From TrEMBL:
Cellular localisation: Cytoplasm
Higher taxonomy: Bacteria, Pseudomonadati, Pseudomonadota, Gammaproteobacteria, Oceanospirillales
Annotated Gene Ontology cellular component terms: cytosol
Cofactor(s) listed: Mg(2+)
Domain of life assignment: Bacteria
The organism of origin for this protein: Maribrevibacterium harenarium
HAMAP family: FBPase_class1
Subunit structure: Homotetramer.
Domain Fructose-1-6-bisphosphatase class I N-terminal stretches: 13-183
Official protein name in the record: Fructose-1,6-bisphosphatase class 1
EC id: 3.1.3.11
Length: 319
């Protein structure tokens, strides 16, 4: 099986991009090792801080963030980083070619129950020779040059795209290497599986309520087929399931939120997952537009997300 470094040497022309991807994924191996120790390492539970979005940070959120931050700031190809756990962007090297945004540990409510979590990353190329500013990060997702995640589940998997299909690698813990295990994965256009947090149903738009009600009606309703539901409480787990066996994932805006943006972050969650899903033949939209076309207004901006099986996303949008 091809190792990640062999794959990158064969498929990624830029040695700087190879370097950033290798530094990111090497650090994810260390995060994976820390997660495997769990309670034994004394790193579970709360850190006692809040991030910029007012969410309480777990110790592992902070530890993973610091690991990625330190490794990426030391990497000469990195111009600057933006993290879900940092208030502002952090400049690295004025000649670095890449801007990287990341969610160091997505699904952190799953940490204490020993369930799936992941690291999500998104890369943009930059030019010139100057310190990075936040404005440089505010580019539509269609300009990403690479995006992916590392899923910490029963096995640790790396899934990424450089705009030419989606490939999956599994961490061989004996060799300490990511090995290519799933090539050019595709999301089927049709599905009978959906993922949405149903406890928010009463807060959704009338259209979203009507769409999900019709899914739940199954064969007895207008869709004429039965649907199953899954919810991992970590977008990285839900998207991984969709890449492996299809489905639609929705985190819509709801009436609790006056900005009508929903919960998910554009730069750390929606954009990288949209690039992966589109590269696997699926679709990724808010209720009004393609996610990858959104012009970001801030690095911590939130957006509604509807992604996965192309025909099911179209159907949802038709409501
Ligand atoms: P499998 O081992 O066949 O996947 O079944 C698991 C299970 O029996 C329970 O562990 C779980 O609670 C339930 O199925 C989930 O079923 P559903 O498909 O209705 O969500
Ligand atoms: P955390 O990393 O703060 O746990 O958030 C994860 C997440 O943003 C996303 O990965 C999940 O899909 C979503 O939250 C789950 O949210 P619910 O609390 O609505 O289940």
């Amino acid at each position: 099986m091809q190792s990640l470094s062999q794959f990158l040497a064969a498929h990624v022309a830029s040695s700087s991009l190879q370097e950033v991807l290798l530094v990111t994924t090497e650090t994810c191996k260390e995060i994976s090792a820390a997660l495997k120790k769990g309670s034994l390492a004394g790193i579970l539970g709360m850190a006692g801080n809040e991030n910029v979005q007012g969410e309480e940070q777990k110790k592992l959120d902070v530890i993973s963030n610091n690991m990625l931050k330190n490794a990426l700031l030391a990497c000469p190809s990195v111009r600057a980083i933006a993290s879900e756990e940092e208030d502002d962007i952090v400049p690295a090297h004025t000649t670095g070619e890449y801007l990287i945004s990341f969610d160091p540990l997505d699904g952190s409510s799953n940490i204490d129950i020993n369930s799936m979590v992941g690291t999500i990353f998104s890369l943009y190329r930059t030019t010139g020779d100057h310190p990075a500013t936040e404005v440089e990060f505010l580019r539509p997702g269609k300009e990403q040059v690479a995006a992916g995640y590392v899923l910490y589940g029963p096995s640790t998997m790396l899934v990424f795209t450089t705009g030419n299909g989606v490939n999956m690698f599994t961490l061989d813990i004996d060799q300490g290497e990511f090995l290519l295990t799933h090539e050019n994965v595709k999301v089927a256009a049709e599905t009978q599986e959906f993922a949405i947090n149903m406890s928010n149903q009463r807060f959704w738009s009338d259209a979203m309520q009507a769409y999900v009600s019709d899914l739940v009606l199954g064969k007895d309703g207008p869709r004429g087929k039965n649907y199953n539901m899954r919810w991992v409480a970590a977008m990285v787990g839900d998207v991984h399931r969709i890449l492996c066996r299809g489905g639609i994932f929705i985190y819509p805006w709801d009436k609790k939120d006056p900005t009508k943006a929903g919960k998910l972050r554009l730069m750390y969650e929606a954009n990288p997952m949209a690039m992966l899903i589109e590269n696997a033949g699926g679709k990724a939209f808010t209720h009004t537009q393609r996610i990858l076309d959104i012009q970001p207004e801030g690095i911590h901006q939130r957006v509604p997300v509807i992604l996965g099986a192309a025909n099911e996303v179209d159907k949802c949008l038709s409501y």
